[in-house]
Design brief:
There is one protein chain. The protein is mainly beta. It contains eight helices and 39 strands. The longest helix has 14 residues, at about 105-120. The relative contact order is 0.09.
Length: about 625
Amino acid sequence: MREASYGRAWLTGGVAGWLPVGYDDSLCQLWTTNEQPPPPVMADLVHALDPLIDYALLDRWIIIIPQNPSCGFAGYSSLGKETWNTDDGVVRFSRFILNGFDPATAARVSAHEFGHSAGTLQHSLDHECGAAIVGDFCSDGSTATDAYDVISQSVPYGHYSAPNKEALHWLDTNLVEVTPPGGTYFLESYSLPASGSPPTGTLALRIPVEWLIDDLRGASGYYVSYRTQTGFDAIFPELGTDGAMIHLDGDFYIPLDPPVTGASQLLDMSPNADFSQLLDSEDVLLGVGQTFDDSENGIQIEVLGRVGNELEVAVTISKYCGNGTIEPEIGETCDGSDLGLETCSSVGWSSGTLACSATCQFETSTCSGGFRCGPGHAYDPATETCTAEVLLDASRRDIWRSTSLWTDVRNFSSGNPTTNVGYIFLSNVERPGFANIYRNSMPFDTSSIPDGANLVSATLDMKILAGFPSRNTHPGSADQLVLVEATLSNPPVASAVDYRTIGTVDSPIELAPRVDVGDVFTGAAAPIQFVLSSAGLDALDPTGFSHLGLRGAYDVDDVVVPGVENALQVYFRSEISPIAGPRLTVVYDAVPEPGFAAGLFAGGLAALGLARRRAGDKGRFEIGRVDPQAA
């Protein structure tokens, strides 16, 4: 820890001694999951050690148990600190367990677990893209491990990767942020042993970039470091050759409590799809005279050679805001005077002079008159429509009930709001003595849609997530998801009394054709789309939150076979992942700016004879005219 942090972190403390604890060793009950409240065995252990430990002074806790084959792990750690009730008051500390003490492995297992407990670090991965170096959705968390990071699943010796050291605040001023158009940089050895004070030179570069890691995480930067065969990195013979090691970070889109660092991703500069992943990772370095070219993002990294004890690296960034050229692949709509032939009219206004902002986005404050869209909504001049994309509000809640009888749980007037760590969980089960139902509020903040806008269409997209226990005991039966209107009294947070507001118990108003999920529980994450009907458009509220609800058909149709398990369990990401959703996409007619040629505009619509639903006015159609309030 002292070496990897360059003298910024180290361990001090004491040993409390062995303590006999009575628990079922065959079930490994000393550690189950990182949950609150803690497993009773852990709570008992904390209480038993109260006379020996001043918990108010404790930050980290290492527990060593006699080797237990039932546990199935060498080490296990909390992700960051947990809250405990002790005789010394309510305290927070992290903990990890060593399953037995093997002198040959205890040091590296401890360093690995400290990464989890001290930095909430995830296992570092290899960015495995087959024959390519980098791309979207390349990593496989089950097999693609970073063989050069002690926090990876392979648990080698060696230093933590640069993204992980930054998360631990160990790089400090030794990390240089590369800004356009780039430059030449000199990297000190990243893996030199600690020698008193931290080094003063550059240990790593960070180059901003965007790649999609998976449904829940995205990369925001390349990290370039110079690893040498010294210190705890001496075990890697391939580091005896000069070269740059490049990683991506991988931050979660969603806020987690406690905050969790996303897994870093090691890039292989000599990928070979025919090799095993571990063998292929033995030549990951970008060698002297070699160039890594990310043409999509306009980034080049070239290793020029070693100068003294430092590695000289040149970074060129050709695509960036301010170079006078529009690069849509990095999110630009304009750049300086280059507007791409767009005008105020083509982006939804009738007059004025379109400009470009300092962030290379269209500036419409100098436009006037004509149509308008809500803030951030896309305008289509061919159809004169706007498109809004809204992610599910992060403060939503699931509402759950359980009892021994299916009829009772279905008709209860109140429930238990749950969060499920940001997942939607549906479960309708009937077996002797047990039944439960989850009904789910899905509030979307649609207030950015202009009041009175004519809604054309709307879709709700989401994904069933792979890697979580989904179940379906009766494929081909009532295994559909049903979108209904929810009428919460306290938006957008559901309370216990809102259990009955996720549609009426019997025959709720359905807002879209049902989606059959009977065949999507295998393979990768499965996409789901609800296409909202006219009733669904009626349920959207442009003045605040649109309260949609999700239920299972077993619940809606009251389908149950007494005495037989009847289960449907599905997990969705339910907060702010732009990939997994849930995401509501609404297309609506562009709304005329207040006071702009109202009479002429209304006459034009009358001639066309258009019929569209007016948002915020349920059940009402405007045929051949525009409501004066809307105009």
